[in-house]
Design a protein that fits this description.
The complex is a heterodimer of chains A (326) and B (117). Chain A is built from ten helices and five strands, in the order ααααββααββαβααα. Chain A has two domains: 169 residues, Four Helix Bundle (Hemerythrin (Met), subunit A), CATH 1.20.120.80; 82 residues, no CATH class. Chain B has two domains: 74 residues; 42 residues. Helix content of chain B is 70%, strand content 0%. In chain B, α1 packs antiparallel against α3. With 117 residues, chain B is an all-alpha fold. The chains are: A alpha+beta (326), B mainly alpha (117). Chains A and B meet through α1, α3, α7 and α10 of A and α1, α3 and α4 of B.
């Protein structure tokens, strides 16, 4: 009968003896193997992103042109700065986490508490930053039109810079209202109206002789999107199916809908990891305050959540590279 | 090796690693904004030298985070190999196959995409 009773574990050793396989405690080793499997999950996602990017290598959106916003700098073209700031926030919260682990090794409860708190705050700031990044991406910056075959056409001014639809579209004060379920067939509705109708954009385009259009296709020599001379532009615009502003899972003013899909999915999955990391950090933070680990005699639990937190940072390093840099 | 010095503070090392990670990130951002034509428009090993630089810097950052923030340097060699070798091998394997297949699809598909109307 005794044989079926689980042996008591004190958290330091495996049950059944004092030998630790691989020199690690059970919890720490399992955290490492969880991280390994999670790393493979993320590489599956990033690998799928790479597959699709290589598939559409000559028409993929250029990240520099997509993520150009910075808080309080309206209308300024600021590529990379914001995401660099987010990277710093995450690296810094990793530093405070490792300082908490270090203080835990020396059994300094006060320091562990302080550094855990800083880590939680850093995680929350990162989550807020990510929400802001999503908001800008969903809201869009310039607007574009979608052709019947799904291609995105953007508008550029004489100097080749993108130009907002607001700058040239001629509002005709039409009565188009948003379709909701109570107005039409019960299963038909739309989440939002594009800011302009196709006719308004076309009228604006015809009235402004300086404007021309830009294709998704990247010129292999200059690595810039191809600009079509105005004389040929109408051949494309006659095919217009819809006006697009911002990005969602179906359509995306920056180019391939897949880009938005992968962006939402991968940064969303990463953000969910950050969120769960913050929750776990909060739980451990209160345990530290209550003196749980002081009584236990060691702060290994801080070390284990620290491993998870650093892993989240590690994943961000790769997301940063593959979405924003490469 | 590390267990003997477990109770000593590693604060100096932590800040040093933070410095290294910050410098690498700053270099990445500067290169990403400037995109010098020499690095951006030339081609080496199937991509631009700029992309190779970004990949190498990313792996260096990953090394510092894993080794010094996650204390992989202090784990036994067997645990280290179980985690690092497994992930490195499987990820390279997956990435290689997917990227080769991606460019193959592109080779077949790209000529069929109409760009002039």
């Amino acid at each position: 009968m005794e044989a079926t009773v689980a042996t008591e574990t004190n958290g330091k050793t495996w049950s059944g003896g004092t030998n630790k396989p691989l020199g690690a405690s059970y919890g720490k080793m399992m955290m490492w193997f969880f991280i390994l499997s999670d790393a493979l999950t993320f590489s599956g996602f990033l690998g799928a992103y790479g597959l699709m990017r290589f598939k559409f290598i000559e028409s993929w959106p250029i990240a520099d042109e997509v993520f150009t916003h910075f808080p309080f700098l309206h209308g300024l073209h600021a590529p990379m700065y914001y995401v660099a700031l987010m990277t710093f926030i995450l690296i810094f919260s990793s530093v405070t986490m490792v300082l908490a682990v270090d203080a835990g090794h020396q059994m300094k409860k006060g320091k562990v508490t302080f550094y855990m708190l800083l880590t939680i705050i850093g995680g929350l700031i990162f989550l807020g930053s990510q929400a802001w990044e999503w908001k800008n991406f969903i809201g869009g910056s310039y607007g574009a039109v979608e052709l019947n075959d799904g291609k995105i056409i953007q508008f550029v001014d004489a100097s080749g810079h993108q130009i907002e639809l607001e700058k040239f579209a001629i509002t005709s004060h039409s009565d188009r209202t948003k379709l909701t379920r109570d107005k039409g067939v019960w299963f038909m509705s739309e989440s939002s109206l594009p800011p302009f109708s196709i006719d308004e954009v076309m009228a604006g385009f015809k009235a402004n002789p300086d404007i021309t259009i830009r294709l998704e296709k990247i010129d292999p020599v200059t690595k810039k999107k191809t600009i079509v001379p105005r004389a040929e532009a109408m051949n494309y615009l006659n095919e217009t199916k819809a006006v697009v502003k911002g990005a969602n899972l179906q359509v995306n003013e920056y180019g391939k809908p897949l880009f938005a899909d992968f962006f939402f999915f991968i940064t969303g999955f990463h953000g969910f990891h950050v969120f769960s990391g913050v929750i776990i950090n909060i739980i451990i933070f209160f345990n530290v305050i209550l003196g749980t680990y002081e009584r236990r005699g060691h702060y290994e639990m801080v070390e284990k959540v620290g491993l998870y937190w650093h892993f989240v940072d590690l994943v961000w390093v790769f997301v940063f590279t593959f979405f924003y840099l490469v | 090796m590390a267990h003997a010095q477990e109770h000593k503070s590693h604060t100096a090392l932590i800040w040093k690693v933070f410095g290294i990670l910050s410098v690498i990130t700053i270099v990445e951002v500067i290169l990403g904004i400037a995109k010098p034509d020499v690095l951006h428009l030339t081609k080496i090993l199937g991509t631009s030298p700029l992309n190779i630089i970004f990949l190498v810097l990313t792996l260096v950052k990953a090394y510092y985070i894993t080794w010094f923030f996650m204390h992989m340097a202090d784990e036994t060699k067997s645990l280290r190999r179980a985690v690092v070798w497994t992930s490195v091998f499987l990820i390279i394997y997956l990435a290689t196959l997917l990227l080769i297949e991606g460019s193959y699809i592109n080779d077949v598909l790209a000529p069929l995409v109409k760009w002039n109307y």
